[in-house]
Design brief:
By secondary structure, this protein is an alpha+beta fold. The strands form 9 sheets. Strands 18, 23, 24, 25, 26, 27, 28, 29 and 32 form a 9-stranded mixed sheet that branches. The longest helix has 22 residues. The termini are far apart.
Amino acid sequence: MKIIYKGKEGEFGEGKTAKEIAKSFGIPLKGVLVAEINGKLVDLSRVINEDGEIKFYTFADKEGKKVFWHSSAHVLAVAVKRLYPEALLGIGPAIDEGFYYDLYNLKAGDNDLEKIEKEIGKIIKEDIAFERKDISKEEAKELLKENRFKLEIIEGATGNLSIYRNGEFYDLCRGPHIPSTGYIGAVKLLKVAGAYWRGDSKREVMTRIYGVSFPSKQELEEYLKLTEERKEHDHKKIGKELGLFEFSELSPGSPFFTVNGTIVYNELLKFARELDKKYEYSEIITPLIAKIDLWKISGHFDKYKENMFRVTPFESDEEYGLKPMNCPFSALLFRSKTRSYRELPMRLSDYGFLHRYELEGTLDGLLRTRLMEQNDSHVYVAEEQIEGEIMRMFDIMDDTYKPFDLKPIMKLATRPEKRIGDDSLWDKAEAILKDVLEKRGYTYEVKEGDGAFYGPKIDIYVLDFSGRQEDAYAVSTIQLDFNLAVRFAAKYIGSDNKEHFPIVIHRSIMGTIGRFMGIILENSKGELPFWLSPVQAKVFTITERNNKYALEVIKKIKSGGIRVEGELENGTLEYKIRKGQLEKIPYIIIIGDKEEEKKTIAVRNRKGKTEYNVNVESFIKDRVKDIEERLPYEEK
């Protein structure tokens, strides 16, 4: 049996486990959790009887974390069954950060989590092995006959099944798992919630216990500290404190932007449009609604039909949909007349509102909504123009990210299993994207199988406040599409006087405007750069006798194009300054007798530094420059 590990070949007899193969290759087993043979994750105890390439994962790897957290869910289930024998097990998967287990007939709340954690601690100390056994459906039914939830899963399965055993506990599971419970260093149960069985509101309500686990207590402590920091950076909390946006149960997933929130939103839109103009994009406006046939032509319908808002007009049998994406509309415009190669590249920006029916549980403030507006563009090019256009898109990205100190993390997403178009076109498209990334000097990660159904793409992420790669936000995307124009019969006449299909480059730099706003709020903790702040300066007076001069200052600053407000009512200066700080105002202007006498102002920045005897005209001039240059911070 021939096994390859990182380019090294090894010959093995049959019957060797993944763990034994790891030892033969000299791999230190400390921290190794799971193996992968020919793309399939397996337990370290699994006997390998096939030639192939083997990999090993630790908790530092995404694959390792998933297995670690899935195993931790099993340990949670063992603890619950020991303490509450009448509870019935549902499912217990790993999630993006941690795990949960759904249980029925369990009367437990947040106050019981500490007791369950203690029992988990005992199970970890017992260092119980995870033992796999493959069984038939009939054996599984007999083994789990007292659990109607497991029987339902068994009925829906095809072929043989597998169970995993931990001492007296066993569970229906595909696996794989970590070798034993002793690999888990620390567990924290986070909360108890309700959840419908299999997400069906007509089914049983389960008790869902969420948790997270790590190989060491130190890692758990660091995670809990980061969790507390995240609460302070949460854009939903910041948005509420600053009065920027609201949500209503009557329109779930659709943000209502307040006056101040709309200022921030529109400043981002204005910035995006200015960059489009700078890089010679032309804006179009397309319908909000169209017949479902449109998305059937484009190929989106089969993939997006579950996420579309579909509408049937009164006294009509025709079905329409609210648009979830702009691409098909731009194709209709392109083919509306005979095009010439001289019109290429044709750069079309579309800022229309989009609607997607995202599941209730996935909604997350501005970061995931049902209503969105993208700074979206579709560029129609001849093949030889692709590289130049993508380089231009990287330039726009750099200009967009600069005011926010954002650094791009590039990921190349290749062909998915379900896709349209010939593989030869996919080969060409993927090669072009790899080439342009390398010519630009970017390092990038390849996300195998994660491309759009119509073409490969470059997904661009940015770090959050923590600086952890695993917490990076997805922001921009550049997608190469050899299929859209063909499906819409959108052609141009080339220099050879023959018809050709253009290639379409889908491009969104800010992503959705609302999501981008949420990311900026989280990264800045609400301390928006001066040009983006809804209130850029606030004027306070020390005494009421200074109010008249303060009103003159406010009028002058406002006429300079700066968003300024005055707070001239009674109250201590300390209280007013504290209020301005909580509102994250970039500049607090203080006016007292000395300022009025000298016809100057005192200016306190957000860092607490106060400058006295400031000329009003100089202040305005400097701030206008900040706006024009869109500096990241007002102190620069």
